[in-house]
Amino acid sequence: MVPAQELIRTKHCNSILAAAFGVEFACSRASDHARRTWKVVQTAAGPAGTFADFDHFVFFSYSDLHETDIIPRDLPTRAIAFFAWTTFAFGAYTFQSRSAAWWHVLDIDAPNPALIVPMPIFKPYGQSTMRQENVMRETDPRALWFIRSDGGLGVPVVGELPVLWHGHKDFLRLDGSPRKTIKIKVNWPGYERWEKQIRPMSDKGDNSVKRLANLVANKVNLFLSEHDINQGHTGTNPRYVVGTQPGQISARDVLLLGIVIVSGGAAMPIVQLRDGFAFAF
Predict the structure, then answer these.
(1) The sheet that has 94-96: what strands, in order across it?
(2) What DSSP string describes 104-115?
(3) Longest distance between any two alpha carbons in the chain, whole Å
(4) Is residue 43 within 8 Å of 37, Cβ to Cβ?
(5) Residue of 262, 110, 107 lying closest to 187 (CA atoms)
(6) DSSP string, 168-179
(7) pLDDT for res 46
(8) The pTM is what?
(9) CA distances from 218 to 161, 215, 268 (A)
C-alpha cells in the first residue's frame, strides 16, 4: 500500500493549487481534508473501525470502485476527487459521478501550470504558528471551484458571467452557517498586498455561488484596473505586469477559477491567464 502522504503528493503535485500556492499548500490542504474525514468515518464506524489504517483509507477515498480503472467519471474536467463518505451535504462542494457516488473536488489537474498566476498564500496572525493552527482548524480546507455548466473551469473577470454548475447553491461555512462578509486578498506577483471586503449574502438573502463568483470577479477586475501600469503602478515582477500592452496582463486576459478560504474571514482568488497568452518575459 502506498503511504498516504506519498499518494497525496502524487495526486496533487501537478495541480492548479500547487501552481497557484505551492505544492506544499496543495498537499497540506488535501491531507487536512483527508484526516478530518478519516476521523469522522472512524468515529461513525465504532471500535471495529472500517479501514486497517489511514493509508488504506486515503487510497480508497481517491478510488471509484465501480469503475474498472477506479477513476470517477462525469465529474468536472480533470477533477482530483475525494470520496465524500458520510461527510457530504448536497451543496456547492459536492459532485455526483457516473456511479452515483458523491465526491469533493479537492483540486484540479493543471494542463498548463505556466498560465496559473502564483500568489504567496496569506497566513493569519503572521508568524504566530499556534494562532495560525487554531484558525486553520476552523477553516474549510477545500477550494470552491467556479465550474461552468459545460464542466469547464473558470469565469471571466470582465463581461458576462456564464452559467455555473452549482451557481444556485449556497456559499456556506464549514459548519453550514452563511457568510455575511469576507475579505478577498490578492497577492499579485510584484505588487503590494491588496484586499477588499465583499458581502456574499445580499439584503434579500441571496447567498449563492453565482453571486459569490460575480463579486470576486469584480474585485479581481478592480485590482487590475487600479494597478494598470498607466496608473503609475509598474510592479517589480516583469512577467506579471498589469497593463494593456502586448505581454502585459489586462482584465480580458484573466480567468477566475475559484477561491480558497485562508482564515475565518478571508479568501484568496485562484487566477489563470487565458489560453494563448504570450508573456513578455
Answers:
(1) 79-83, 102-108, 94-96
(2) EEEEEB-S-GGG
(3) 66
(4) no
(5) 262
(6) TSB-B-TTSPBP
(7) 60
(8) 0.94
(9) 11, 5, 14
Q: 30 by DSSP, 3-state: which?
A: helix
Q: Which amino acid is at 58?
A: V
Contacts (Cβ under 8 Å, ≥6 apart) of 180: 199, 200, 201
Mean pLDDT along residues 94-99: 96
Rg of the chain taking only CA atoms, in angstroms: 19
The single residue listed with the C-alpha cell 447567498 is 207
Long-range contacts of 163-170 (CB under 8 A, 24+ apart): 164/209, 164/210, 164/213, 165/76, 165/95, 166/91, 166/92, 166/209, 167/208, 167/209, 167/210, 167/213, 168/208, 168/209, 168/210, 169/91, 169/92, 169/208, 169/209, 170/91, 170/92, 170/207, 170/208, 170/209
For 244-255, the pLDDT digits (tens) are 999 999 999 999
> Pseudo-torsion of CA 100, 49, 1, 11, nearest 10°?
50
The burial of 16, by beta-carbon neighbours within 10 Å (0-12 exposed, 13-18 middle, 19 or more buried), is given as buried
Question: What are the cell numbers at 201?
Answer: 449574502
Contact 215, 258 (CB under 8 A): no
Return the C-alpha cell found at 228. Answer: 494598470
C-alpha neighbours within 13 Å on the C-beta side of residue 23: 9
